[in-house]
Amino acid sequence: MAAEKGLRGGGETARPGVRVWLKRTKLVCVAIAVVIVLIVLFQNKERAAFDILFWRLEAPQAVLLLGVFATGVLVGAFIARVLRRQRG
């Protein structure tokens, strides 16, 4: 029974080498994502209009893209937190 639990990841923790590798991989992925976001932001300097319902917002595309990106990060973090709480 204990062996089955360990195979499923229920009770045992990952080996230290695996944790370091996962941490580095996550860091590299985040760094690549940040570089891509910065490239996109710097290439979109012209003004753009954003209409939602009866509001109209005009700003540089970079500002609008950064706002949308930040909103996505916040929503993703919120959903991850809710799911983590549901699991226990």
Describe this protein's structure.
The structure is a single chain. This protein is α+β, with helices and mostly antiparallel strands. The protein has two domains: 1-43; 46-88. The protein has helices at 2-7, 16-43, 61-87, and strands at 47-52, 55-60. Helix 2 (16-43) packs antiparallel against helix 3. Residues 1-8 have low confidence and may be disordered.
List its salient traits.
88 residues, alpha+beta, 2 domains, two-stranded antiparallel sheet, 2 strands, 69% helix, flat
The 3D shape can be described as: flat
Radius of gyration: 20 Å
Whole-number total of structural domains:
2
Helix content: 55-70%
Largest sheet: 2 strands, antiparallel
Distance between the termini: 21 Å
Q: Give the ordered list of helices and strands.
A: HHEEH
Count helical runs.
Answer: 3
Low-confidence runs: 1-8
Q: Report the β-strand fraction as a percent range.
A: 5-15%
Tell how many strands the DSSP assignment holds. Answer: 2
Mean pLDDT, all residues = 81
In spatial order, strands of the major sheet run 1-2
Structural class: alpha+beta
